[in-house]
Amino acid sequence: MSGLKHTPGPWYIHPESHIFAYRITDGADLATSMTIANVTHTRTPGTALANSRLMAAASDLRDALITARAELRALNVHQDGEQLVNTFAARAIRLAEAALSKADGDA
Known about the structure:
Elements: E1 12-15, E2 22-25, E3 35-39, H1 47-75, H2 87-103
Antiparallel strand pairs: 1-2, 2-3
């Protein structure tokens, strides 16, 4: 996995003057923040806000997934260092690695 390339979190949602439009920024103060993304209205009410919330949580979700992957790897190793064959942990680790690879642009 490559090094950090995205804007570090936390990210914030700011409603725009346009109906169902939101700005995602790297700070709570819109005047001093950098815009990460603009989310415009959609055909379905509530979708723009839901998309904005998901985007604003992306950095935190990535960090949580990295932690979860590390914990799953630790749980999947026996005390003597031998790798256990825990199907559930192995599958979760593979899914986490695929998602992180996609997020980091390595996929």
